[in-house]
Amino acid sequence: MGARATSDELGFYTAHKPGTLTRYFAERWLKRPSAKGEQLIAWLLEAALGRNSMYFIEKTKEYVDEWKGSGEIVPVDAFDGFAITGDPAEDTIIPHAVLVWTCMNDRPWGEEVYHRWLDELLAAGSGEAAYLAASLWPAHDLMGKVTYRPPGWLVYRGQLDTDAERLILKEMLKRYDEPRTSLYGSFEYDDVKYPWQLSELYIERHGFTHPICGLLRPVDFEAGHGLKNRIQEALDAPSWSEGVKGAAMLLYLSLNAFNDLAGPTLRLLNTLEQNLFKLDEKYINIINFHMDKIEKIDYNSMKDYINYLIILYNKIIDKSSLSMKVFSKYMSIGLKTKDIIYIDRDFKNIIFKLILEEKEKVESWLENQLDDLRIKDTLLAIYMSKSIGHYYVYLNKELQADHVDKKMECIYNKIKFVDKIKLFIDQSRTYFDIEVDSYKMCDFIYYILKREKKVNFNCDFSKDYAKIINSFYLNWRYVLKDHMFLGSNHIGLYLYYNILKEWRSIIVDFRDHIKEEKELDLYLKTRDKIIENLYIHTIDNIEVKMNLYLNKIENNNLPHEEIIMDLVNEIENDYYKILEYFKDERKMMKFKELILPIIYSLHGKLRNSRLTDLLGINTKSQNIIIY
């Protein structure tokens, strides 16, 4: 889509031409910056941050530099430069970029423009990006075109089909600190901060009715989340559905793994034990296998629960020795990695530690899994790992780069050197501690560049490039001030950092680093407008706040319950100010026009609220009566 720049001699192909950020790093890393050197650096930046992130960063700076101080800043054809891939890691930055450009222009493009761009995301199979775009962009009926929904939304709705269940399990298989797509948009459930919260949310919304509900920790009961009564209600039933049976089995295994239970949690374990007779033989066999009461079990009889069990022992219980023991048992009965929805650092660490104890068994098992392409990446990560004590596994700092290179050739056969660099970046993010291990990984990258292309960077390269790898979009939760290049004087980069930090200026105020008054004014206007749209509750002006609520309701074909309930809270808190606001009959008519069609489904939750008083709705009977 964008202008493609190439370097025939070096062989580094980038989706876009090098820009000012590329030149900034060329001056930092190269003794004698050149066009060829810039081409290499542009490729390295794209490899670390992604093509679309780099396009947004560089084009934003270019558009601002060309802007004369009035009129449109970003042209309507800017979207055409994005390289839509269908990969969430690449594409989910696009909706945020378009929101930024819309706010920079001070007025949106025509609604048909946003619909056309959404259609392009959908055509590329980029469901996550399409969902986020429909949530953030200012056009009617966008969400009606999108079928993708994030895990939190699926839990909120319930009624999980196979695809929804896989999506939720994939999210829960990830570490809490693992890079993940940000979908922060109109609703709280767009981003569930911690994967284990999904089980709690499901119980709160739908009761103890699905296997996901069994993936709980003892602390969840002790923290006063009100889960016990919902669970007790399900367990007291004379018979259990398949969903309750799966949940009860998993919860029983979870609580049994802890020896220090007391109070409500211990009583819950006793209740489970007293009701195990309600489980079928299949569930009892799975329990007995994990509690060492039987040595063998038919793998196929528990295959449907293998991802639940891996989450339970690796993420919920999280005791290293127990995880290793259980995983070794799974290997013995024929575990296939293709049945595991998501493989990450925890999986690699367990295999690494098991090799130290059961080398022949584990290596034989791994050989039988090589039809799973992820295992090659895992094997490389295991080779590069080293344990510190019994628990911690890190990148081996003593490894020689040439030894790693030979191991790569052994695992992957013929592999291009540019693919080796991408592989090192992916290894850093997926299988290692990105904050601790990325610097050493960048030493390996420098070795490949120096050997293959005779590139000589100065001493800043590895340190800088590690920060860049850490600052990629999916790592948005853990980007620190120390990772940022605040001296770049690059408004595109500062706006990118704002996207990563959800527009919360809690670690750095970029105003201190923008030198030109024109850029500073534009930055502040854009930032404030986006914050108003994303964080309505922070706004004091009632008129601005009400307009933003109504815009969210009008422009998004989403389930409106959460926004309405949020609006109810605002009305309760500022009722008399809002009453004054609605003395303008035109505002009240607009308000009723948007709200009344929605609240029929919410009347049970709106009884006695001031919203119903405001609208003149009688909620004494089951039917809502409009006066």
Terminal CA distance = 55 Å
Spatial strand sequence of the major β-sheet = 1-2
Rg result = 27 Å
Given helix and strand content, the structural type is mainly alpha
Number of helical regions: 32
Helix content: 55-70%
Unreliable stretches (pLDDT < 50, length at least 5) are 1-10, 618-627
Share of β-strand residues: under 5%
Number of strands: 6
Major sheet summary line: 2 strands, antiparallel
* Overall pLDDT level: 86
Assembly type of the chains comes to single chain
Indicate the overall shape: flat
Structural description of this entry:
With 627 residues, the chain is an all-alpha fold. It has helices at residues 20-29, 35-49, 51-66, 88-91, 93-105, 111-123, 127-136, 151-157, 162-173, 197-206, 218-222, 227-235, 242-256, 263-274, 281-290, 299-302, 306-316, 320-332, 345-357, 359-367, 374-383, 401-412, 417-430, 434-453, 460-470, 491-500, 517-534, 542-555, 561-573, 575-581, 585-599, 610-615; strands at residues 5-6, 13-14, 385-388, 392-395, 617-618, 625-626. A two-stranded antiparallel ribbon has the order 1-2. It has a two-stranded antiparallel ribbon with strand order 3-4. Strands 5-6 form a two-stranded antiparallel ribbon. α6 (111-123) runs antiparallel to α7.
